[in-house]
Amino acid sequence: MAPARAFSSSWLIITSSVVLFATLCAAISPYAPGLSESYYAKSCPQAAEIIEHYVTKYLKKDSTFAGAFNRLQFHDCWVGGCDGSVLLNSTATNSAEREAHVNFGLRGIKEVDEIKAALEYACPGVVSCADILIIAARDATVKAGGPWWPVALGRKDGSESVDLLADANLPFLVFPSPC
Ligand SMILES: *[C@@H]1O[C@H](CO)[C@@H](O)[C@H](O)[C@H]1NC(C)=O
């Protein structure tokens, strides 16, 4: 009797946790208005292929780019949303996010710049750097043997990038997220 009860109560806890997390994830992850997976289907149909081409090239050279792109994406999204702000350069009067302590050793910015240049050549002024980063992180993960996930596109690039905001917002310790 006792083992059976223990089994069913832990089963209940597991099941209800899964249901809770699924509900939470569904509640926070629907695409924002204007975003869609097929955002560039008409305006730059070759975008996905171009990004994948470059990501394949980088991973062949160095498989740790999968981690690098995911860290870059996480650090971009955490500060002011996924707006490409982590890619911006400092100016004479502003120290950008990339100078933040938490962003020490951040890699992949040069690579995103290179993909952006290729996309500007193919479809001038269409694909945002924020979206390039989102796709690159996903594609690199898949190529490294990880899971595929759908990405919503149509993000606009931000113009604000401040190192102190990154240091104030990004945790030095990252806890696993159910999403
Ligand atoms: C930042 O500066 C580098 C080097 O000058 C340049 O290649 C890159 O395009 C710049 N990035 C942005 C987002 O302006």
From TrEMBL:
Pfam families hit by this protein: peroxidase (PF00141)
Binding site for Ca(2+): D76, V79, G81, D83, S85, E97
Cofactors: heme b; Ca(2+)
Stated family: Belongs to the peroxidase family.
A GO MF term: metal ion binding
Site (Transition state stabilizer): R71
Active site residues per record: H75 (proton acceptor)
Cross-referenced PANTHER family: PEROXIDASE 25-RELATED (PTHR31235)
UniProt-recorded name of the protein: Plant heme peroxidase family profile domain-containing protein
Gene3D superfamilies per UniProt: 1.10.520.10
Signal peptide interval: 1-27
Domain annotation Plant heme peroxidase family profile: ranges: 34-179
Bound cofactor: record note: Binds 2 calcium ions per subunit.
Binding residue positions for substrate: P171
Organism per entry: Riccia fluitans
